[in-house]
Fold this sequence. Notes:
The chain is α/β, with parallel strands linked by helices. The protein has helices spanning 13-23, 42-49, 68-80, 97-102, 123-129, 165-191; strands at 2-8, 29-36, 54-56, 85-88, 107-111, 134-141, 151-158. Helix 1 (13-23) crosses helix 6 and helix 5 packs across helix 6 (165-191).
Amino acid sequence: MIRLGILGSGSGSNMQAILDAIATGGLAAEIALVLSDIPDAYILERAARAGLSTGLINCRDFRSNFPEEAQHETAEALLQSGVELVCLAGFMRLLRAPLLQAFAGRIINIHPSLLPSFPGLHAWTQAVEAGATESGCTVHYVDAGVDTGPVIFQATVPVLPDDTPESLHARIQIEEHKIYPAAIAEVAASLRPG
């Protein structure tokens, strides 16, 4: 059973999908720690309700930067909790050396597009505005770039002629909640010796 650390900045719907997969026996894992950079992020409330350990990442009043000192502290908290795999779930800051080195090859993210198309923020809006006929979601390893790490899993969602960014995003999230636990299981299997 792999011990997961979750970093999130928003509602935590992907964390909930992971919890649900664990509860139904679809994922042999436990969530050891949930951290957020946003004090009132709903992910922290969800985690607390589920009896999970939570904590706040102190980003020193930076709105989008993830200071090196904060990354060191985050890595230390994850390591102290025995985390083996870090899962980003709507975490809106770029990771750099302190975290990437502490968990080399053991940080994954879910992104709401078929990478390499539409990296960065509001990918569903980018897809609609570009006139794309399909979009989807991607689970990938995290590197120092913006959604540039190697792809693990993808799921495709058609972009319908009458789609708004909101309607497309809602359909993408349904697929996210399916593929993230599956990708975690695959990565966990690859991390086990033998």
